[in-house]
Design brief:
heterodimer, A: three-stranded antiparallel beta sheet, B: 385 residues, alpha/beta, Peroxisomal Thiolase, Chain A, domain 1, 2 domains, nine-stranded mixed beta sheet, two-stranded antiparallel sheet, globular
Chain lengths: 136, 385
C-alpha cells in the first residue's frame, strides 16, 4: 500500500461502514461507488450508514498470507452479506476457524488491518466477529 | 463470423526456466510458430502480445516494443493486451478482430510471462492485483483465497465433494504425462491432493496451478491469405468475450461464472455451434474448482453437476468431452499471460492430429480463458478446415 492519500480517501468507509445508495433505484453499494451501475447517468448516489450486521456466505482460512499479513496467519477471510443486501470481503476475528459456518450471524468491529513495516503507516478498518448474543 | 485461419503454432517448455529471459521466451515461441507456418518475417503485418504484469514480474513495461525489437519485426505495429490471466485469450481475440476488420492479413499473437524471477510472496502479491486491490487484497485476501470461497460455496450449494475437486488435479496431471511441454510429469492420486498442505481451506497445494515461466505463439491469417501457405489450416470460427464484476463480493452468484456463460454464448452464436458440438476443450483450471465452474458455465454439464461429471470420468481422455488434454493450467503450468495462447495451441494440435499420446478424436474444439476471479472470460471455438 504505502500511500497516505489512497488510504485517506477510503477512510470513512473503512472506519464507519459508510456506503452509497442510489436515490432512484434504491440499490445499495458497498464498497461505495460514485456511479450507479444500474441507473448509470440517471442515478444519484447518497451516503448511507450500514448496519454492520450480516451473515457468512462463504469463508476460507488463509495459510499462505500476502506481504504484511504474515504475523496474522492463519486467519479467516469471509464473504459477508449485510442486512442491507450488499456483500463484502472481510476478516473474521474472535472465533476459532473450526467454529465458522455458512449462515453464521456476524457483526462489524473496528480493528487494525495491516501495517507498512515497523515505521510505516498502520491501517485500520472493519473486521467482523460472531454476533455477541449468539455466543454460548 | 468469417473464419480466421491458424497457420502456425509454437510453444516453449513451461516450467521454472532460470536460464531464460523474458524476451528469449517470446522469441523462442515466435520462431517456432513462424517456422510452423512456413512464412517469412516480411509476411507479418502486426503483432499482439498477451502479458499480465511484466512491470511487476521483471520490471519491464512497454513489452510490445521490446518484443517487436528482439524478434526483428520492427517497424510493424505491436500491441500489448492485458486482462490478468486472460491476457493471452484477449490477445488472440484482438488478432482475430484485426484480420476480420480487413486491416491486416497475417498477424502474430503471442503470450508470455516470466514469473520465477520474484520471491513467492511478491508473486502472490502480484497475482492478487487481478482482484479488487482496495477491497479484497487490502483486507488480506489472496487469489487462492477467492477460489476457496467459491469452492466452499459450491460444495455447500451443490454437494460437490472435496474428492471431486481433487479428481480434476489427478486427471490433469495424468494428461500432462504425455505433453512434453508441461511443467509437471508426475502422476498424483486423490490421496496426494488431500494430504498436500492447506493453502486456503478447502483448497490445498495440489488444487493450485504452479508459478511458471513460458511463452506461446500462433500465426493467424485471413482465409484467402492462408491458402498461400497452408493446405488445410485449423480455423477459429467463433470468438466471445465478456466482463463481470472485478470483486467476487459484487457477483450476483459466486458459484456461476457469469462472464464465462456470456462469452460462451457469444462464441457459440458466432460459430453457429452449441456446447454439444464441442469434442475437446482447454479450460481455465487455475484452481481445481475453476475447471468445475468452467465445464458448467460453458454448458458441457448442468450447473452443480461438474463435480459428479469429473468423478464419472466424463472429462477424461476417452470420456464424453475430454477437458485439458494438455494437462491444463494445473499440470502444464500457468505462465499467466501465455496461458490463453497456449490453450489455443493445444486445441490446434488436437484438431491437426498432432497431439501424440494424448490425441483425441475431434473436429471441433474450444479454448476458455479467465481473468481474475471471473471478471473477464474469453472463449474461442476452433474447427478443422
Amino acid at each position: 500500500m504505502g500511500s497516505i492519500p489512497r488510504f485517506w480517501r477510503n477512510m470513512q468507509s473503512r472506519y464507519n461502514l459508510i456506503g452509497r445508495r442510489c436515490t432512484r433505484c434504491g440499490e445499495v453499494y458497498f464498497p461505495p461507488r460514485n456511479f450507479c451501475a444500474r441507473c448509470r447517468r440517471r442515478g444519484e448516489l447518497e451516503e448511507v450508514q450500514l448496519s454492520g450486521r450480516g451473515e457468512v456466505v462463504s469463508f476460507t482460512v488463509i495459510r499462505t498470507p500476502p506481504e504484511g499479513f504474515e504475523r496474522q496467519a492463519p486467519y479467516v477471510m469471509a464473504l459477508v452479506r449485510l442486512e442491507e443486501g450488499v456483500m463484502l470481503t472481510t476478516q473474521l476475528v474472535d472465533v476459532n476457524p473450526e467454529e465458522v459456518e455458512i449462515g453464521m450471524r456476524v457483526e462489524s468491529v473496528f480493528r487494525k488491518i495491516q501495517e507498512d513495516g515497523e515505521a510505516g503507516l498502520i491501517y485500520y478498518g472493519f473486521k467482523f466477529r460472531p454476533v455477541e448474543e449468539d455466543r454460548p | 463470423m468469417k473464419r480466421v485461419a491458424v497457420i502456425g503454432v509454437g510453444l516453449t517448455k513451461f516450467g521454472e526456466l532460470w536460464e531464460t529471459s523474458f524476451s528469449q521466451l517470446f522469441v523462442e515461441a515466435g520462431v517456432k510458430a513462424i517456422n510452423d507456418a512456413g512464412i517469412d518475417g516480411s509476411d507479418i503485418d502486426a503483432l499482439y502480445v498477451g502479458n499480465m504484469s511484466g512491470g511487476r514480474f521483471v520490471d519491464q513495461e512497454h513489452i510490445s516494443c521490446l518484443i517487436a525489437d528482439h524478434a526483428g519485426l520492427t517497424p510493424i505495429p505491436a500491441t500489448r493486451v492485458e486482462a490478468a490471466c486472460a491476457s493471452g485469450g484477449l490477445a488472440i481475440r484482438q488478432g482475430v478482430m484485426a484480420i476480420l476488420s480487413g486491416m491486416h492479413d497475417v498477424v502474430v499473437v503471442g503470450g508470455v510471462e516470466k514469473m520465477t524471477d520474484l520471491v513467492t510472496e511478491k508473486t502472490t502479491q502480484t497475482l492478487a492485483t487481478a482482484s479488487d486491490s482496495e477491497w479484497e487484497a487490502f483486507m488480506g485476501m489472496t487469489f487462492p483465497g477467492l477460489y476457496a470461497l467459491i469452492a466452499r460455496r459450491h460444495m455447500h450449494e451443490y454437494g460437490t465433494t472435496r474428492e471431486q475437486l481433487a479428481m480434476v488435479a489427478v486427471k490433469n496431471h495424468r494428461n500432462a504425462l504425455h505433453n512434453p511441454y508441461a511443467q509437471f510429469h508426475t502422476e498424483i492420486s486423490v490421496e496426494d491432493v488431500l494430504r498436500s498442505p492447506l493453502v486456503a481451506d478447502p483448497l490445498r497445494l495440489l488444487d493450485c496451478s504452479p508459478i511458471t515461466d513460458g511463452a506461446a505463439c500462433v500465426v493467424l491469417a485471413s482465409e484467402e491469405k492462408a491458402r498461400e501457405f497452408v493446405d488445410s489450416p485449423v480455423y477459429i470460427t467463433g470468438s466471445g468475450q465478456a466482463s463481470s464484476t472485478i470483486a467476487l463480493h459484487d457477483r450476483r452468484s459466486i458459484t456461476v461464472a457469469d462472464a464465462t456463460v456470456n462469452a460462451a454464448k457469444e462464441a457459440y452464436a458466432r460459430a453457429k455451434r452449441s456446447a454439444d458440438d464441442i469434442q475437446v476443450a482447454e479450460v481455465h483450471d487455475a484452481f481445481t474448482i475453476g475447471e468445475i465452474l468452467a465445464i458448467e458455465g460453458l454448458g458441457f454439464f448442468r450447473i452443480g453437476e461438474g463435480g459428479r461429471a469429473t468423478e464419472e470420468g466424463e472429462t477424461a481422455i476417452g470420456g464424453r468431452i475430454p477437458v485439458n488434454t494438455s494437462g491444463g493450467l494445473k499440470a502444464k503450468g500457468h505462465p499467466v499471460g501465455a496461458t490463453g495462447v497456449a490453450q489455443v495451441v493445444e486445441v490446434v494440435l488436437q484438431l491437426r492430429g498432432e497431439a501424440g499420446k494424448r490425441q483425441v478424436d475431434a473436429d471441433v474444439g474450444l479454448a476458455h480463458n479467465v481473468g481474475g476471479s471471473g471478471g473477464t472470460a474469453v472463449v474461442h471455438i476452433l474447427e478443422k478446415g
